[in-house]
Every structure is written in C-alpha cells, then in structure tokens.
Amino acid sequence: MTALTSALEISKLAHEMHVDESELAEFATTSPDDLRDLRGIVSHAMFSRHESRVKGLAGVSKKLPAAVTAKITEIAMGPILSARVAAVMDPADAAKLAGHLKPEFLAELSVHLDPSRVAGIIAKLDDALVVEVGRRLLAEGHLLTLARFTGVVSPETSLEVVDGASGAEILQLALFIDEPSVVDPILAGLSDETVTEIAAATVEHSEAADALLAALHEDSRARIASLA
Amino acid sequence: MSEGLDRLAATMGVPATRLAPLEAYDDQQLGRFNDLVQGAMTAEDKAFDASLDEALKLVPKMLRGVVQKMLGGSR
Q1: B20: containing domain
Q2: Ranges under pLDDT 70 in chain B
Q3: Which residues of A touch B (CB under 8 A)?
Q4: pTM of the model
C-alpha cells in the first residue's frame, strides 16, 4: 500500500518537474507524505523563481482591455507563463480574462496550474466553462491534472465532468486525488453501472483497490463491495 | 547534512533541514535529483523568457516602455 501510494506521489512529483516518472524511480522508497512535502517544495521553488516579473505582468493585464490581454495570452504568452500569471492575478480580473479565452487554451493552461493557487478564480468561473475544460482534460488523458482540480470544484461539477468516463478512468482519477474525502461525494453521485465498472477496474488492479478502499468512507466501501 | 543535500537545498532555496527525509540517499542520487530540478528550472526559464518576448511584441508600442518598467526593466 505504501509502495503504491509512493508510486502515485512519484507520478505527481514527476509532473511537477516535467520529467518522466522513471527518472525518479530511485526515490520511490520515500514515504508518500515526504514525497508530497517534496512536491510542495519543488512547486514553490519553480513558482517563486519568476514571481516578481509574473506579478509585473499581472499588473500590466490590469491596464489593458481583457480582450487585448486574452489575445496576448493565447497568441504569445503560452500556457506556462499564463498559468504563472493567473496564479497571482486578482480572481475577479482573472475570471473576466478567462471568459475571453478559448476552452482548449484553458485546458492546456490548467496542466501547468497549481489549483490551490487559483481556487478563488475557479469559484468565479461559469460552471459550464469549468465542466468543458474538465471534459477536455479527461478526453486528453490529463487525469492527474483533473484530479488536482477536483479538490477545488464542487462534487456536482466533478460529476458532470466525469459523466460518460469509464470506470478505469474514474478509478485512476480517484487514486490521484490528494484529499480522499473529496472522492466520497463524487462516488455517491455516480450510477450503480459506473460504480460496477469501477469495482471491476479495482479487481484488475488489486493494489489500487486497496489504496482506494482504505481512503474511502465505509458507506462508499460497502457500495463498491456490493457491486463488485 | 550531506553535501548533496546542501546543494539540493540551495537549488530549491530552502534550509537543508526541510529535506531531512532525503538524508537516506547518497550524494550521487541527490546529485541526480538536483540535476533534474535544475533541468526543469532551466527549461521553464527558457519557455518563460521566450513567451515574455512574444508577449511584449503584442503589447501596443505606446505601452511597451511602461510594461518593461513594470517587469523590472529586465526585458
């Protein structure tokens, strides 16, 4: 179980560092909690590197019309820089800007965002836009990114995003979610058919099943067991 | 604290004590980790600078000087 959750944390750390997880394989014996702390340190180090210039850019965006900023954002800044700037923007300004950006660009940008830094922005976005971006992430296989955002959107929004996803995809998503308590309300809203698919997927990945079940509320565990 | 841990801590701008859980790894392993972190930072610096250059090209000329000042005059 620890080895499995450490492996999941290695995947998350590799994502943060833009490297293949195999390059971090030798650190898989570190505990999940320590790997999580390390990810936080790496994330902060990467973010703070350009903080003053990023804040400058966020200030610039206040002086330009949102439509002009959106054009600059999509055409020139690209997803990495845009993600950094979004993290320091005033949530109201950022939400206004997001309304001018294409959902496909927002999905690309989301891969580089730290959701904990932009929860205030997401709260101000139109639900339909959040769902559309989430569905794009799901379709493109960005399950790790999607999992990170699941903690900052409502269970109802998450359920709309995963509507139609396979049991295996939802299982992987659940395993990537940092805060296990987030999974229970989502699971409660899924159809029996989907939970049956999840149960089937856990059979194929018994270690993953252990990790997931251990993190869930007993009602959720009982439901999965009854549908397995 | 080992030399490898001190180097990694310096790269990430934290006290070496924050990296205590990595004490079990030898300097070679920590050196490889440090290289990966530095590589990620360098790649992001390049992407960041290239994006910023492109972005400045789209800022209206009359505002470009103001923008450069707001970015610390480094661009």
Answers
A1: 3-70
A2: 70-75
A3: 17-19, 23-24, 26-27, 29-31, 34, 37-38, 41-42, 45-46, 48-50, 52-53, 56-57, 59-60, 63-64, 68, 71-72, 75-78, 80-82, 84
A4: 0.83
